[in-house]
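Design job #97: recover the sequence.
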């Protein structure tokens, strides 16, 4: 089949291949929208995971600090704490010497709610207390998270677990 050409010497076949059709542009735009929206969703999920990891680490540090503080108390002081579940004062954990440290403390107080429960264990002649430290916070997605730990504090030291029960 003979090829016809226009005034510039291009063939009709060449003129048809010179541009994009509306369908090709629509498909390319759809692919681009899918790629961008997927990237945004992945970034959002990554930010949630990062927030969760940071706050879980901070929660673990608060729990550990409070556990160490209670561990250093005398038996009589632990007995006075065992009266009821109480809120943990984060000012005993976070320093507040500078303006930045006070801002960090204020942020921690807005973010975390920490409680301590000390319960006497009657199975051990009231010489063992079970200490539970729990912490709760909301993530950036509004989901409530919590972590807790338990240990036992014995009259003669935190790790003095060797008790036998009389039958």
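Job complete. Output follows.
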């Amino acid at each position: 089949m003979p090829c016809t050409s226009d005034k510039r010497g291009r063939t009709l076949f060449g003129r048809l291949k010179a541009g994009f059709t509306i369908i090709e542009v629509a498909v390319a735009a759809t692919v681009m929208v899918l790629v961008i929206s997927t990237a945004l969703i992945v970034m959002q999920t990554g930010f949630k995971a990062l927030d969760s990891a940071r706050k879980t680490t901070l929660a673990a540090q608060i729990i550990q600090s409070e556990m160490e503080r209670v561990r250093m108390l005398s038996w009589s002081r632990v007995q006075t704490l065992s009266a009821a579940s109480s809120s943990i004062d984060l000012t005993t954990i976070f320093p507040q010497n500078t303006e930045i440290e006070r801002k960090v403390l204020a942020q921690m107080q807005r973010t975390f709610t920490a409680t301590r429960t000390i319960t006497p264990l009657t199975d051990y002649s009231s010489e063992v207390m079970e200490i539970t430290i729990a912490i709760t916070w909301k993530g950036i997605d509004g989901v409530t998270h919590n972590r807790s730990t338990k240990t036992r504090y014995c009259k003669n030291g935190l790790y003095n677990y060797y008790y036998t029960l009389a039958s």
